[in-house]
Amino acid sequence: MKKYLFTPGPVPVPEDILLEMARPIIHHRTVEFENIFAEVREGLKYIFQTKEEVFVLASSGTGAMEGAVTNTLSRGDPALVVNGGKFGERWVKICQAYGIEVHEIKVEWGEAVDPSEIKGALSKNPSIRAVLIQASETSTGVMHPTKEIAEITKERDDVILIVDGISAVGVFPQPLDAWGIDVLIGGSQKAFMLPPGLAFAALSKKAWKFNERSNLPKFYFDFKRYLKDAKSNTTPWTPAITLVIGLASVLRNFKNEGLEKMFQRHARLAQATREAIKAIGLELYAKHSPSTALTAAISPGDINAGKIISGLRDRFGMTLAGGQDQAKGKIFRISHMGFIDRADIIAVISALECILRDLGYKFDFGAGSRRASDILGVE
Predict the structure, then answer these.
(1) Which of 130, 161, 277, 332 would disulfide-bridge 153, Cβ 3.0–4.6 Å?
(2) What are phi and psi for residue 10, nearest 5 degrees?
(3) What residue spans in the chain does CATH classification 3.90.1150.10 cover?
(4) Over the stretch 30-67, which tens digit does the pLDDT of each residue have?
């Protein structure tokens, strides 16, 4: 049975990238690797839309989240965290682990934060030094309004905006320089269509000023060391060499495609998936601000979402993601990131319809795949 991966990380990896990473390993303290890393540095600046350095960390995205906190804040600093899902919750836990005074804006799962709440919280508590958000909350399929929030924080010299863009960078616009984002992070296993193992982080000039006074412990994720070594096209610690080689090829492909076409590709796949879900008669979990990285759908009636997920896996070889915590058993999530194309989306919708019909759900069979085909069938 052919296997299909529709999880929002890890994602399918293109065959040419897999072959590139299958070449014999090279040493990282060589001119050969330095040339590859130089290309990666420039490519990441292009994707992050910044003139600042973008660091390549040998870790999952959580490593970059931790580094974003430890390199900019100090023990006891008040920070405002938007908590509307599992990864907003992760910001809270990281901050608490380092003695940050956490102020939460709790957002109902499936909803995006209202920027006015952030503005109000900053006005009420002027001692807050950072706002931490997800651009795309992967656990709920919600897109938070980064641009509008950045317009609030960039007017304050004493507040930085830290953005988890792990399922956003490369999917939809998050221009660090143009919007005034202060820390933006990403991960290899999302839009970068690589295996897990790399995380990325970029800091604005304002964030570097915060770095000068930061007193939190840092060693492996000491961004000053990464900045120093990046200028020599290397990293302070042993990098994930094979993944970096694959990254160079991915970034080359991204430049050839162009940012706007990348964003349009994801948006079109997302539109087709969402419209197909609605044609089947299902509801979206993110009703007002869905992310173009993935679609989270509510399982119908008394059908546990786990039955849909296991049915797709066992009968069609398709792996989807379920809900977490309060959404467990209630939703299933279909990714549009990585090496996924039009045919993949039409296939997963068709398979979904088969499973739903067999589980007893009554709907216009074929309506979803027809709707997806209508949207994706025309170039």
Answers:
(1) 161
(2) -70, 165
(3) 4-9+258-376
(4) 999 999 999 999 999 999 999 999 999 999 999 999 99
Q: Which residue do the tokens 């994930």 mark?
A: 240
The percent of the chain in helix, strand and coil, each rounded to the nearest 5, is 45, 15, 40
Report yes or no: 25 and 242 within 8 Å, Cβ to Cβ.
yes
Identify the pLDDT of residue 378. Answer: 67
Q: Give residue-wise pLDDT tens across range 61-96.
A: 999 999 999 999 999 999 999 999 999 999 999 999
Residue intervals in the chain for CATH 3.40.640.10? 15-257
The domain made up of 4-9+258-376 has a fold known as: Aspartate Aminotransferase, domain 1 (3.90.1150)
Structure tokens at 139: 């656990």
What local confidence, expressed as pLDDT, does residue 98 receive?
Answer: 98
Q: Strand (E) positions, the chain?
A: 4-5, 54-58, 78-83, 101-106, 130-134, 136-137, 142-143, 160-164, 183-187, 198-203, 294-298, 318-319, 321-322, 331-335
Interaxial angle between packed helices 305-316 and 342-358, expressed in degrees from 0 to 180 and rounded to the nearest 10:
120
Is the pTM value of this prediction over 0.90?
A: yes
User: What are the residues whose beta carbons fall under 8 Å from the beta carbon of 225, sequence distance 6 or more?
Assistant: 236
